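Narrative summary of target 7.
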Amino acid sequence: MAISAIQVENLEFPAVVTSPATAKAYFLGGAGERGLMIEGKFIKFTGIGVYLEDKALESLADKWKGKDSQELQDTLDFYRDIISGPFEKLIRGSKIRPLTGVEYSRKVMENCVAHMKSVGTYGDGEAAAITKFAEAFKKVDFPPGSSVFYRQSPDGILGLSFSQDGTIPEKEAAVIENKAVSEAVLETMIGQHAVSPDLKRSLAARLPVALNEGILVPN
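Modeled conformation, tokenized:
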């Protein structure tokens, strides 16, 4: 399949990105919106894109190749294999509505801590990592179109970077070394209590074709 870009509201998520921080290329696994019901109306706040290293396909193929989109969408283990798989992920969260860094990070941290406590992975090391996470966002503001990037490596490194648009900065603003926290960030987006069902549907729709046919990177 020729991997394609995705439009979420006024945000475009390119088919392929290369991070100047790592010099690695990542393909777009899926993208979707995140919002909240406010006074009976769904308000969209963020567009989220999940990018994967090419070797993600080889890792996921053994278990998931040949499955259809609906089956994947209904299977939590599929998403858990993306979250914990031995390949790098790059997550872009871009703002549709303005948010302060404190507003945005508070909800992310609440969800991450709740998940880690529910599965028994929250301890002193994770509490310290969450504090470092909070510090990274204190002086950041997110006008519409601005982005946070999460680089998740298989060895538990979570790299954070901030941009006023959709471009990836050359240097990361913070690096957090805690595997439980790193995985919890993506778990809260696409796991059991996902903040973006739209992103889950996108991953389940696109990845079966990529697993079955491979991907062609556009020039």
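The first strand starts at residue 6 and ends at 8.
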